[in-house]
User: What shape does this take?
Amino acid sequence: MARVLVIDDEPAIRSLVVAILRDAGHDIVSAENAAAGLEWLAGGTVDMVVSDVVMPGMSGLELLREVRTRRPDLPVLLITGGGTRPMLGREDRVLPKPFSHRELTAAVEGALA
Assistant: This one.
């Protein structure tokens, strides 16, 4: 079981991702934006981050850069409606919306492996 930090500004999406990953057996913590997620990372222990890309304030891409600075080996999965792939490196994991429960679970398991 891994502890996963889920960051999404849309409560319905955040709740859905939390429920799917909790059902898959993970310990979940969540944040409503990137700044709150970074605060959680500073004070808590997580094995992975799952974050939306498009958020007000700090975007998921900016969050990814900050996480890479603080914890370069921490797996990050970005969830996006599209158009972000060219901005990311090959090593970055992206899950396009809409996604199935199985696709989300498989992407998280792949990142943690």
